[in-house]
Amino acid sequence: MPEVRIDPLTGLRAIVAGDRARRPGGELTAPPAPVLDRDTDPFAEGHEDRTPPEVYAVRPNGGAPNTTGWTVRVVPNLYPALSTDSPVPEPEANPDLFWAGPARGAHEVIVNAPDPVISLSQLRVDQVERAVEVWRERMRLHREAAYVHLIVNERREAGASLPHTHAQLYALDFVPSAIARERERFGAYATRTMGGNLLADLVQEEVRRRERIVAIDDETVLMAPYGARVPFQLLLAPRVPRMRFEDDGPLGARMVHEALSRLARRLGASPPLNLWVRTAPRGSEHFCWRIDILPRITVLAGLELGAGVNLNIVPPEIVAAELRELSA
Fold this sequence. Notes:
- By secondary structure, the chain is an alpha+beta fold.
- The chain has helices at residues 125-141, 177-192, 198-209, 253-267, 302-307, 316-324; strands at 3-6, 13-16, 56-58, 72-76, 105-111, 147-154, 166-172, 213-216, 220-223, 234-238, 273-278, 290-295, 310-312.
- The chain is globular and about 60 Å long.
- 38% of the residues are buried.
């Protein structure tokens, strides 16, 4: 029967209604992957002159900036959403109704590998490890920002304007309300439990129950979250809680590769998806980093957009059971 669930980390409600997956047109698969045209790919090796000058790169054999021979490359976004010198808008006569401020911060693109592929799952595990290490390095560089949000959009259906696998980093001078709410939930939980960590305790209980666990390795746990908003949503968390992803410790890169590989096998292709790293915002006393993966194989409609309540037609228990059966 359908039921309403509250995500313990975000406080968001979702309706889990598995029977709706059996309605006509409810079958879930990923659309065929597009073919990447290397000639028009600005992120391909040899096309370094088609991007802004790099700000960071990994070149195992050395070499000059903006040349070939790199394994991961970081450039400013050509069309940035944030800028360090964003001007202050003209003041409004009624700021209570019409407030605006400068969009200040940094907006970077991290090209995950020179290989012309659309998904991290199509790279080797060691390539994903190198890419995620650079994610951490760039997040560490911007750690004085109020919040650093690192994302991966895969395929146009999930917002990727360029198909070549890449991440984006936003160094914000404010803490978004959704993340501030999570910080408050971690703090409130610590107060109620005399110091408990919300995500660490959640992971421990999920491992005990096993019904939503997909995979476990020495560093991380992969699960289908209890309050999953979309079908095949996944959550990756460290086995030992750490506040910030940018601090030393587990990276979770191997588990990211495994998660995306299992999704591709189950859905018939690497699905359109959004991935982000949730790290502790500035001022946090209680938090734990995680990586969220949201496939985009269903369409957000009036309930989601109008009421803020997601309708998930595949229970996370079924997702976990199906993905457990698949090897990466």
